[in-house]
Amino acid sequence: MKYAFNTWVYSSFPCWVPSYSIDETIKRLSKIGYDGIEIGCAAPHAWPYYLDENRRKEIKELLDKEGIAASSLLPAPGGGPGANPASSIKEEREWTVQHYKDVVDLAVDLGASTVLYVAGWRMFGVSQEDAWKYSLDSLIQIGEHAKEKGVTICVEPTSSDSNLIETADDALLLMEQSGLPNVKVMFDTFHVLYRNEVPSDYIYTMGEHLKHIHLSDYDRLAPGQGGMDFYPVIQALKDIGYDGYVTMEVGFNARSAHPDSIAKAALDHLKAIENELE
Amino acid sequence: MKYAFNTWVYSSFPCWVPSYSIDETIKRLSKIGYDGIEIGCAAPHAWPYYLDENRRKEIKELLDKEGIAASSLLPAPGGGPGANPASSIKEEREWTVQHYKDVVDLAVDLGASTVLYVAGWRMFGVSQEDAWKYSLDSLIQIGEHAKEKGVTICVEPTSSDSNLIETADDALLLMEQSGLPNVKVMFDTFHVLYRNEVPSDYIYTMGEHLKHIHLSDYDRLAPGQGGMDFYPVIQALKDIGYDGYVTMEVGFNARSAHPDSIAKAALDHLKAIENELE
Amino acid sequence: MKYAFNTWVYSSFPCWVPSYSIDETIKRLSKIGYDGIEIGCAAPHAWPYYLDENRRKEIKELLDKEGIAASSLLPAPGGGPGANPASSIKEEREWTVQHYKDVVDLAVDLGASTVLYVAGWRMFGVSQEDAWKYSLDSLIQIGEHAKEKGVTICVEPTSSDSNLIETADDALLLMEQSGLPNVKVMFDTFHVLYRNEVPSDYIYTMGEHLKHIHLSDYDRLAPGQGGMDFYPVIQALKDIGYDGYVTMEVGFNARSAHPDSIAKAALDHLKAIENELE
Amino acid sequence: MKYAFNTWVYSSFPCWVPSYSIDETIKRLSKIGYDGIEIGCAAPHAWPYYLDENRRKEIKELLDKEGIAASSLLPAPGGGPGANPASSIKEEREWTVQHYKDVVDLAVDLGASTVLYVAGWRMFGVSQEDAWKYSLDSLIQIGEHAKEKGVTICVEPTSSDSNLIETADDALLLMEQSGLPNVKVMFDTFHVLYRNEVPSDYIYTMGEHLKHIHLSDYDRLAPGQGGMDFYPVIQALKDIGYDGYVTMEVGFNARSAHPDSIAKAALDHLKAIENELE
Which residues face D36 on adjacent strands? Predict the structure, then answer.
């Protein structure tokens, strides 16, 4: 298995502190032993519009030097410009599509071949059908740009935070309707737990279309610290021959988080399970 | 007392749902009985760059029709562009200053004369002195623009979320150093409770410089639902002759919030206290 | 407002005890002051196949004598025959359709003009699309039979227990696709709370199509005993001119429930709110 | 020891989801390492009336292929037809007796030689004597049919859910009064814990008549996850020379259950105890 760690807990989203520069974060995750880093596209790490050509090169060189890959990139929805591709506000949808394209370009510059797609949510009064259409239309525009750049877009069900793409089936259907070969799916165990569903079932259901995965225990704790059993998840990933990054997205919901601690605990726990299953 | 209600719990920041359009939110808060509405400058309510001249007029007309005033505006820090005026990233500081100026202009268009200033936070490795200098420099640029437009900037200590301006004294010092007559101070009871300090003490300390206030019970509950005693706060506001809006900033930390319920409960509770004190 | 009470907590579903005969239950709810009784179609109350013509007449006469109306009927899904209209097992779907028709006939015999439709759920491996098709097909067969009998079928989103029709939008879409004028929608505040959504929003969204409603506080407690604020719900029902029964479906999840206590507390709480709003 | 696992947590009783087909459930339990599977006779697994001759053969062949035995069958009381053999409703008792006979026949078809008998419960107003008589009469009819088919009926005290057969002594007395050699007893540690009694005491008390056992930790958790000590239970089973299946009946009370996880954890825990005692 290749392991990656999402940067939110080291960044200012959604908790402003503690935060660390992207350079510091890369060095720490490399030292802890991760193979990859999933980079959140928000200040202070990777808001695309603050990173000129030189800065992008610097970051890429640091990644290479530290022997850790940029595994994937994702936006930070929910504040400021919103970044809701299903918004009923036309200006927001247009900005969001352009932003995702800029994230795709940044991914290419940093050597990442995967960008996550958070399909958005509905305001009161907007129908499920309209929101779905808006999101699908946004996805197609983003996906076509990504296809030219050799980047895979992974649709993520985010039931805990939204009301549009909530399940494996929702994500697979949106993927299918996009009609694009580089649009695939992913999921986050945290959102599956929110729905009181079974995480390993999502792996078998998504099967060959599963190109990315977020692991989190209950309450965004590191795997092993919240009571969820990750054996069936690792077993299922082996069963389907998953070859993407196993990525932790944890700890970012609490100012009191100790990022290095969480990153190390998660990696240790999953490697122990992997060893036991071999 | 004039009562206002902050829009976050009706918006997509920081919880994406439930959310309501700015028009729906104005109508609901007016119906519940608020005098003012504090508008968060994030999608889907009031991201300045999605609101053209016509849309601003529409919103202003709706406010007038519903008999509720735009009491104040504020940005949504922490995601995407960051909006941290104390950032060590030059591009972020520049964007943030410009963004605050745009928020000031939007305030003017909507009839509000107050904009809140969240002074920012420090990443690991940035000194308190440097961050303070960055924030002060940003504040002066923003304040000068606001002065021309007749808008007051209120510095808010945000101890619960940040590590720069944490106390009444910090806010007063930054205000003083700005040297601008339209830079004043405010505070939020929630942040005072986070520091285990006494909210009414902040009122006497800030005195004539106190131009805005956020009320919240413990855990961002509506006043009256979390156990804090708001009598001393209302008494202190009367004592100093406070004539600004008493603004609720509550409920936005939980997806499970019922916005109308919270807005009504908060207003009922404070009016009851006010009546009792008369 | 007309108030009704669902019989589960007086029956053997899902907790076997305490249980009371249907006759005893009718007398108790009438005495407490309810206008209507929602009858669950399971033993020992109203399993249609245990109630011959005479027994149905007896129950109807008792209802008349006690001055309480049979407001609605519903099946008891989840055990024995399943009663899942979205089942991938053909035998189960066929039985379920026939069962709903028999429930409709029983409703007519007892003087009720509303039957609730629980749209079912998906097993692992069954796609959302297939399950939706199965449920829609079942609904059309049931709805056509009900139309002949003058009975309204109300589609209920049951997010807390299932994975098919979870939201107001899901229910409205299924209703629309049925193409039948006597197929309408309803919702249960308990399921809305499970989704961390806002109950009163469901009322405005469903509007004229809302023909039934279940009230329950958090954890299936009686309204007023669990912390939810029912003011906005009663206000919204008034706003849309709702003229159906306001039905409590509470307490049935715990053997320790005291049915009369719960029934009285719920009625008292809602009447108090109604009086206050007048 | 031979270990078996009850299918409720994989089925739609009492929680509708998650659920898995009987085929999927057989494969999973076999892979986890169980010797036997206890099959609940409810949709979607084994409602007898949905399983024709062919389907029964298919299931039997799958069991053989997967190397796992149908250890026992049981009905799902409490909804729809009730299945309460002590009901004061004659139609319900008659249906229940017939249903048990059909379950016995299904057991034979699937190769199981044990059927569990849940002796029922009393509605308000029905005396203990009458209910006992009803249940005994039902049991005799069922037991005689089972005797012809070579099936053992095990009477289970179910104190947590009912009010008729609550203790080891109740079960032994009903057994004795049946006068049938193929009527025996069993118990479930969960129900014993509900009465604050000592599970291993039930083993010594039931002794040679103990032909089946359900293990569950507190709160229907897997043995090892709820705090009960299972050493004395395993020791007592060895002491009396128990040669039936040690069957887990766990996890089915919560939608949030992860069935494979629970099944594996229970088996691991008990095998570890067994190894230690050898």
Answer: D4, D69
